[in-house]
Write a structure and sequence with these properties.
This protein is of the alpha/beta class. The protein has 2 domains: 142 residues, Rossmann fold (3-Layer(aba) Sandwich); 178 residues, Dihydrodipicolinate Reductase, domain 2. The protein is built from 10 helices and 15 strands. The strands form 2 sheets. It has a 9-stranded mixed β-sheet with strand order 14-13-12-11-7-10-9-8-15. The chain has a 6-stranded parallel β-sheet with strand order 3-2-1-4-5-6, sandwiched between helices. The two termini are 37 Å apart.
Length: 340
């Protein structure tokens, strides 16, 4: 049994608690939160679980094996590093951290304590988005040439104390959702190397470059492969499209829900495989972040037992670099080379 401590019990942390309790081989052994309404909610939902209002008290609990960190972005490095130094394995929500230096601190802490650090890029575990990786790896569309990722959604939830609207706490909105899209594309195309450049454009109602209501990046890989990643936070509901074109075929998939955390989404995957004139529609299990979170906690149990992360800190660090350089490109109005 892997005994988990959960740090953070906001709206998303509550879903993490349920996912831990539902994961075979996992036990929710303690919760730490900031107090007030979140502590009251945790106490009501999990009266049998020890509750702390200081995460250091949770880390001092010797029978905890792993810590699930679900806190505002600016606390990821501080709490993740403290948990690793306390001898706990760590599942850390994305984004890994706000800066490359913070990523390096987390990686160093995992190494010096011989702990497993895995980052919550749960799109990889999706029945829908994960299926694209298998299609590409099988060579069913040939070599990829182009990808388009588009998200049209309602504005971000403020979060506790409106942290998601404070640059010093959120880092940027590029680190909120585009980080998932960059991760997916870099994962799909890892056989073709890492991206070599990024060019961004965006617009905002009244905020700085990193807090764009509308955001687009063109990301280039070695050779002719490139991708367009775009999102608007000035829309409604939650509508996500991904299209990938290869030398011998193509994929188009979409996901729609009135909310991003629905269990009843509409979605579809269509593939035109190499040598076929017509496309086919694939049947997969329902997808969405609630399903993916549950799968992530199931796999985290295995990852900690087998001492192998689902998504390593070294991989996640590269995604932070792409996000930060995408923001800098937007601010400076020019294409930037990527160095890792």
């Amino acid at each position: 049994m892997v005994r988990f401590g959960l740090i953070g019990y906001g709206l998303w942390g509550r879903h993490h608690a349920a996912a831990i309790k539902g994961a075979p081989g996992a036990e929710l052994a303690a919760i730490a939160c900031g107090g007030g309404a979140s502590a009251a909610a945790a106490r009501e939902a999990h009266p049998d679980v020890p509750l702390y209002t200081d995460y250091r008290q949770l880390l001092a609990q010797s029978d905890i094996d792993a810590v699930d960190v679900v806190v505002p972005n600016h606390l990821h490095c501080e709490i993740g590093t403290a948990a690793l130094d306390a001898g706990k394995d760590v599942l850390l929500e994305k984004p890994m951290a706000l800066t490359v230096a913070e990523c390096d601190r987390l990686i160093a802490a995992a190494r010096r304590n011989s702990r497993v650090l895995t980052i919550g890029h749960e799109f990889r575990l999706s029945s829908q988005w994960g299926a694209l990786k298998k299609i590409i790896e099988a060579g069913d569309i040939g070599a990829p040439l182009y990808a388009n990722v588009s998200l049209f959604r309602f504005p971000y939830r403020p979060g506790s104390g409106a942290w998601r609207y404070e640059p010093g706490k959120v880092g940027s909105w590029t680190l909120e959702e585009p980080v998932h899209f960059f991760d997916s594309l870099m994962w799909y195309f890892e056989a073709w190397g890492d991206p070599v450049s990024v060019l961004s454009i965006g617009s905002s109602k009244s905020r700085d470059a990193g807090m764009s209501d509308n955001f687009t990046s063109i990301v280039r890989w070695p050779g002719t492969l490139y991708a367009v990643v775009t999102q608007t936070l000035a829309g409604f509901e939650h509508h996500h499209v991904m299209e990938i074109v290869g030398t011998d075929g193509s994929i188009r998939t979409w996901w729609s829900g009135t909310m991003d955390r629905t269990r009843e989404p509409a979605f579809e995957i269509k593939v035109q495989r190499k040598g076929r004139k017509a496309c086919e529609t694939l049947k997969v299990a329902p997808s969405g972040e609630l399903f993916e979170l549950e799968e992530e906690l199931r796999r985290a149990v295995t990852a900690f037992r087998e001492r192998k992360p689902i998504v390593s800190g070294e991989e996640a660090r590269k995604r932070i670099i792409v996000c930060l350089e995408a923001e800098r490109s937007l601010a400076e109005g020019r294409e930037l080379a990527l160095a890792y």
